[in-house]
Amino acid sequence: MATEVCCSSGSPSNNSNSGSGSIVTDSGVRNYITGSGKGRGLVLIHDIFGLDIGQTRQFADDLAAKAEATVVMPDLFHGGEAWSLARFPPPDKTEFGNWLSTTANADKAMPIALLPASDDPDMQKLLEELRDQPFYSRCVHRRYDGVSHGFCAARGDRNDAKQMEKILDARDTLAKFFIDNA
């Protein structure tokens, strides 16, 4: 289910930047692929608005460059419609988040990076639940005050210097996290 903050953080937008990567279809799945094609590979999960949002693609491009990696962002909607910007916020918040429950079921234990915005719930409790895990020391938690939920994707304003500073810091934090955990 979507969190209240996701629905109340303001309207998302889609800038006209299509990114420097390309769309490649493999085994029937569309993927946005960007980066050098050398070294490590990262899988980046887009937000509910899908992989065709300009800001989301730009973040993938930035992360690929900073981490010296190839970033693959698969279409989690498998060719179906992403959550429409025109239908946001949704009247039924239960319907809104159901797609994630069938797509993001991981059965692997690994470190996580938590990068909440100022209006996101406190994630310290979630991190504390991982304290006994062997990977706990490699987890990252960094709160971004002064920006709203979705600041690296559809809600990000790359023309606002303060937001861009947070976007680049989040990119740098994730790049280091991926490099350290490769």
UniProtKB/TrEMBL annotation:
Matching InterPro entries: AB_hydrolase_fold (IPR029058)
Composition skew (Low complexity), residue ranges: 8-22
Region listing for Disordered, in residue ranges: 1-22
Domain of life: Eukaryota
PANTHER family assigned to the protein according to its UniProt record, in alphabetical order: DIENELACTONE HYDROLASE DOMAIN-CONTAINING PROTEIN-RELATED, DIENELACTONE HYDROLASE FAMILY PROTEIN (AFU_ORTHOLOGUE AFUA_6G01940)
Protein name: DLH domain-containing protein
Originating species: Macrostomum lignano
